[in-house]
């Protein structure tokens, strides 16, 4: 839904604003530590401070935004301990996901293969924001094949936090989440080779964690520029 479509006489809903900010974080258009000024957000989304504050509270609940008394809201800046804890949880959940869907021999993998193709095209076309988003969606879409909504909600949050971590510890245009590895994992799942698929996913997630670089990004951001192409 576009901003214009979501706007009523009272402005867009908090969930709509939160969704646009979340997308900007996931696509690395907003760096960790970036200040989310209420005034600019009100101007960008054509709404009141109360609505913006509700949106920021939603993002804070997902640990994507830090709310600091007397200072305002900032895109969260994960620590190295956060890196280890997030990826520990991802391994626990995603290895179980791969084991389950591989043993089921599900036929609903075509959309995920198509997504990997889009991921490769985004990389080759140097569309890095889209590439980053699609890399994360490979993992969340596998989770959806389990049909477990609670698991999906947990995985969505973990992948979003992983993307935030990569924005902090990796340079722009570089992602440790490889579409080539995604292809190999999917092939093992399609073949019903559960043991190999689980091993490949474990190695993939460990590799992603190791490649995080201890090099913080700059936190300055012009919110008008970040959201200028949002319709």
Can you describe this structure?
InterPro entries: GntR_C, TF_FadR/GntR_C, Tscrpt_reg_HTH_GntR, WH-like_DNA-bd_sf, WH_DNA-bd_sf. GO terms for molecular function: DNA binding; DNA-binding transcription factor activity. This is DNA-binding transcriptional regulator, GntR family. Pfam families: FCD, GntR. The chain is mainly alpha-helical and 231 residues long. It has two domains: 85 residues, Arc Repressor Mutant, subunit A; 131 residues, Four Helix Bundle (Hemerythrin (Met), subunit A). 65% of the residues lie in helices and 3% in strands. The protein has eleven helices and two strands. The protein has a two-stranded antiparallel ribbon. β1 and β2 form a beta hairpin. α5 packs across α8 and α7 runs antiparallel to α8. It is elongated and about 55 Å long. The termini are close together.
Oligomer: single chain
Spatial strand sequence of the major β-sheet: 1-2
Given as residue ranges, the uncertain stretches (5+ residues, pLDDT < 50) are: 4-8, 213-218
The CATH homologous superfamily name of the largest domain equals GntR ligand-binding domain-like
| Residue-averaged pLDDT | 85
Q: In DSSP terms, counting alpha (H) and pi (I) runs of 4 or more, how many helices?
A: 11
CATH topology of the largest domain: Four Helix Bundle (Hemerythrin (Met), subunit A)
Largest sheet: 2 strands, antiparallel
**What is the total tally of β strands?**
2
Q: What is the CATH architecture descriptor of the largest domain?
A: Up-down Bundle
Q: Distance N terminus to C terminus?
A: 9 Å
Protein name: DNA-binding transcriptional regulator, GntR family
Domain HTH gntR-type: 11-78
GO molecular function: DNA binding; DNA-binding transcription factor activity
Keywords: DNA-binding, Transcription, Transcription regulation
């Amino acid at each position: 839904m576009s901003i214009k479509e979501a706007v009523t006489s009272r402005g867009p809903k908090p969930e709509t604003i939160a969704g646009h900010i979340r997308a900007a974080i996931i696509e690395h258009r907003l760096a960790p530590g970036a200040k989310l000024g209420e005034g600019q957000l009100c101007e960008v989304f054509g709404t009141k401070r109360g609505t913006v504050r509700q949106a920021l509270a939603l993002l804070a609940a997902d640990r994507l935004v830090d709310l600091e008394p007397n200072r305002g809201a900032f895109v969260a800046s994960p620590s190295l301990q956060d890196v280890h804890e997030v990826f520990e949880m991802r391994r626990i959940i995603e290895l179980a996901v791969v084991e389950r869907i591989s043993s089921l021999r599900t036929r609903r993998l075509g959309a995920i293969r198509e997504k990997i193709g889009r991921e490769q095209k985004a990389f080759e076309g140097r569309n890095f924001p889209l590439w980053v988003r699609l890399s994360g969606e490979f993992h969340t879409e596998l989770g959806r094949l389990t049909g477990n909504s609670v698991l999906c909600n947990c995985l969505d949050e973990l992948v979003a936090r992983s993307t935030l971590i990569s924005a902090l510890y990796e340079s722009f245009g570089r992602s440790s989440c490889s579409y080539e590895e995604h292809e190999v994992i999917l092939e093992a799942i399609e073949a019903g080779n559960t043991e190999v698929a689980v091993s490949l996913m474990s190695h993939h997630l460990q590799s992603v964690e190791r490649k995080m670089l201890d090099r913080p990004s700059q936190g300055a951001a012009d919110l008008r520029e970040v959201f200028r192409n949002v319709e």
